[in-house]
Amino acid sequence: MAIRVLLVDDQPLLRTGFRMILEAEQDIAVVGEAGDGLQALDQVRALQPDVVLMDIRMPRMDGVEATRQITGPGRDGPAKVLVLTTFDLDEYVVEALRAGASGFLLKDAPAHELVQAIRVVAAGEAMLAPSITKRLLDKYATHLPSGEEPVPDTLHTLTEREVEVLKLVARGLSNAEIAADLFVSETTVKTHVGHVLTKLGLRDRVQAAVYAYESGLVRPGAQ
């Protein structure tokens, strides 16, 4: 079945460009468009897309709040959000990731990267290298908790090995790199990552990296 995509951007010309690129792919179908966050919420409810290609800065309701309402607690729909931004170090991207986005893509990314991003996010993966997430979080550390807050109770549900894996995910290591670091198989690492996401109620490793910062497990700027 084709991946159902909703385009959300306040610039009609950009939406037209994205539509032309995506509709050239046999496995992707653009099911609708929206010009702001409020329209996006209505369209998500009506069309049930698999992926929402979401601009951040829009009138009436921005992409961060729309993302929060689409993917936040209690939402069990299929829609995953891929955020579009003009800058790769945009403070709003951090907020969008915290709100539940599965990753972000620059608006001037090549067509093949846009198509691949849609496929990756639709498959339930994170379209963003954790190392880039870490760079974003380090740069905008002032937007995060100070680290002096109490450790969340949910962190105590993890085993010692799962905590180790979470720290390495937040540092930007791939499964293969984590496996080499811990002297275990890559399959074992995948299992640990899966347990971490399930226990903490997270959607993907991008949110896991954000959680590691918010919980104080990883400090901004730490290696």
UniProtKB/TrEMBL annotation:
Annotated HTH luxR-type domain ranges read 151-216
Q: Which residues carry this modification: 4-aspartylphosphate?
A: D55
**CDD domains from the UniProt entry:** LuxR_C_like, REC_NarL-like
Q: GO biological process: what's one of them? A: phosphorelay signal transduction system
Entry-linked SMART domains: HTH_LUXR, REC
- One Pfam family from the record: GerE
* Keywords (A to Z) from UniProt: DNA-binding, Phosphoprotein, Transcription, Transcription regulation
Response regulatory domain location, by residue?
4-122
Q: Which domain of life is it from?
A: Bacteria
GO molecular function ontology, one term from the record: DNA binding
This chain's protein is named DNA-binding response regulator
Native organism: Streptomyces griseoviridis
Lineage of source species: Bacteria, Bacillati, Actinomycetota, Actinomycetes, Kitasatosporales
